[in-house]
Design goal:
This protein is mainly alpha-helical. The chain is 77% helix and 0% strand. The protein has one domain. Helix 2 runs antiparallel to helix 7, helix 4 packs antiparallel against helix 5 and helix 5 runs antiparallel to helix 6. The longest helix has 32 residues.
Length: 215
């Protein structure tokens, strides 16, 4: 993969980070009964949810952009000989996205969310895998950049910590019967996407300099 190609594909991380909140906002606006504070984003793609003909293309575009970005980022970190922990973190991010793209498609929430059916159970399993692989990936990537003496690593570490805190707030809120799942889930997911966009911006900036100087 040529450097210029990698440069342009790395921009897709920013695009993906914009598409997902667009999906959530459009779904919210088109569903009058939907409450973003109490209702999780997964409900927008649940079996029988309204406006799937409009929302599905948006979420498919998001998954495609994320997958291409993460594959490009892995190529980028290997070509630039980044630290091993960054490489492992990048691979974990790709694994996370594959689990998300395939898992949520195979196991969307069914119409009866309160019933712990096989489909709903698997949806939760997918979510747990996504959260923990994301946590591990963010911490590994941030540690790698910190070891290289880059301030960017500290910024990524902040978002890794925030993502962990917000991710834990979801089951804690549910265990204490706090009807704020939609809010805590949004805090978790949007924190991840801010981190992804920062990773994309930093990589684009660094790869642009490498192309300019012929590295």
């Amino acid at each position: 993969m040529k450097r210029k190609t990698i440069f342009y594909l790395l921009i897709l991380g920013i695009v993906a980070a914009i598409i997902y909140p667009t999906y959530a906002i459009v779904g919210n606006l088109m569903w009058e009964e939907y409450n973003p504070i109490t209702t999780d984003i997964s409900s927008l793609g649940a079996d029988g949810a309204p406006n799937q003909n409009i929302l599905n293309p948006i979420i498919y575009a998001y998954h495609a952009c994320m997958l291409v970005f993460l594959i490009s980022y892995i190529v980028y970190v290997y070509k630039t000989d980044k630290r091993k922990v960054i490489k492992i973190g990048a691979i974990l991010l790709l694994i996370m996205q594959i689990i998300s793209s395939v898992g949520y498609k195979l196991f969307p929430l069914d119409g009866q969310k309160t019933v712990m059916s096989f489909q709903n159970t698997m949806h939760i399993v997918v979510t747990v895998c996504v959260v923990f692989t994301s946590i591990a990936a963010l911490f590994l990537i941030s540690i790698g950049y910190i070891k290289d003496g880059m301030k960017f690593g500290k910024a990524m570490l902040v978002f890794a910590i925030l993502f962990t805190i917000f991710g834990l707030s979801n089951p804690i809120g549910m265990a204490n019967n706090l009807d704020i799942l939609g809010l805590t889930e949004r805090m978790t997911i949007h924190t991840l996407h801010i981190a992804i966009s920062l990773l994309s911006i930093y990589s684009v900036k660094e790869s642009k300099g490498m192309i300019k100087w012929g590295y």
